[in-house]
Amino acid sequence: MGDNSNDLCETLALQLAEVEMLASMYANDGELAMDDPTAVPDIQSFIDGNSEYSQLHSRIRFTLKLHVGDASKNELEVTCNLSHEYPRTVPDIFLRCTQLSRIEHQRLCEKLALYIAELDRDEICLGSIMQWLQEHTEDHIKVSQTEVAHHKPTNTQQPRTENIFCRMWIYSHHIYNKVKRKDILEYAHDLQLTGFCVPGKPGMVVIEGLNQNVEDFWQRIRRMTWKRIVMKEKQDQEIADGKTVDDYRKFEGFEEKWFEPRQVKGRRGAHMDRGMLFQYLDEHGFGYIFPIYFEVSGKQADDPVSD
């Protein structure tokens, strides 16, 4: 890889140094949890020249629990997902906080995105991001608490998003990348979503679960680099009294499904066998989705780029 290999070693070395710094800053039990404990030694092995880049499938991904404000109960979970090119690329940051309303969560995420965009590239920034979150999250929690205190339900009240079951159908030009496929599986597991992912060309992702978790999943994967990714269909249903989200699921767990002829299964460039896909959908009561899914119309993610 020549100079590119040296550049990559530099960025990865910065990542390891930053993770070590954060681990020393947030050293209490349960504060910082690595998603894949083998990522650090795998990356270190590559930096030391003991493995090839083609063997490096691990990436740094961790969750940090921040206590914000004076109240120790105000806990913000910050999930950081780093590409191998970080800090030359921006980190993927995902926030979860039970004390934030949906609107205030969105506002905090938007402000954070603007803050990150203003930071200098080529410099590590996770420490600065954590400090910014500790300084700004409490204000949004207070607004959320005020909203609850003054909330007056009416007959015209819209269903709360946590009481909405959602199923989303996502189309991609193709899904081959092993890291993307691993992330899709992990995101679905983290967010307690069921459904399936179809690698190959075209690619397909179907997810179902609580509305907020489904939306979180969509926001996460649309930020990856794609040639084209489109939300084809979104189905919402209010969860009835006495029911749970599990009563509305049509799939058990989340897994990869292959719909390719046996002789070409897994071969890059091979096209999906749409007949096999239709049969699978029809067995689950979704045969009607097939023509919707393969039409041009759909909600496309912003600014898709080549994979």
UniProtKB/TrEMBL annotation:
CDD domains: RWD_RWDD2, RWDD2_C. InterPro entries: Phi-like, Prp3_C, RWD_dom, RWDD2A-B_C, UBQ-conjugating_enzyme/RWD. Residues 17-140 form the RWD domain. SUPFAM superfamilies: UBC-like. It comes from the Eukaryota. This is RWD domain-containing protein. It comes from Ridgeia piscesae (Tubeworm).
